[in-house]
Amino acid sequence: MNPITMQLVADKYIKMALEEDINNEDVSTNAVMPGYRRGEVQLICKEDGILAGLAVFERVFTLLDSETKVTSTAKDGDHVRKGQVLAVVTGDVRVLLSGERTALNYLQRMSGIATYTDSVAKLLEGSGTMLLDTRKTTPGMRVFEKYAVRVGGGRNHRYNLSDGVLLKDNHIDAAGGVREAVEAARAYAPFVRKIEVETENLDMVREAVEAGADIIMLDNMTPDEMAEAVRIIDGRAQTECSGNITRENIETITSLGIDYVSSGALTHSAPILDISLKHLKVLD
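-> structure tokens emitted (284 positions)
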């Protein structure tokens, strides 16, 4: 995550997380460490996975004290192993103790998403289908979770509702039909915007093609239905499949010639990667 993104976007969320955890004082830390002492602590990986979020991890500590130093031996995107020392954090012992949980929450969550995404992306290798995330993210965590997807080898779908046109079932119902929804979007949205339409059956696929949709989402269709939809579309629009796509079933669509597959599981169902801060030493 680059410094501009960190300061313009991420800092406010990190500060909110710190304020959630330290709304007045850290009673435990202040009890055992009432004054300044310099110390260091090791960041240790406790299981194999893909690392993501080191800059966010570091920023937690530097927001508490800009003098805190994180010396890393790994970087985002690295395959890390159980028992590997990933970094050493040096600074005010009070900062190391008070920032520990928030920093680890970010790093564990982001690394877990990157690890899960990597495992899914590997199943699509050679298929020509690109893996996308969704907006099914944890509130206040989207910027971090979508970054972690990219680290893991996936790509981002739209970031938010201002980022693109996706006409889902309720939009179509509100407009009165697929054609009406597409025409309304063409008239309203900037001409540089592509228009994606969610379809639930083959009749809707035909309507979306005839209406001139740029991307047609095949939502919760069977592999046979998706194969027929690709035949109907016949290159006149890009295709995306979605709906309960997970690591366990994604191989069922790899031979269908679909351009994109979007999976909410990348962000809403990835387990954390177990990482700990251990062996704190008071140096002086």
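Residues 164 and 190 are 10 Å apart (CA to CA).
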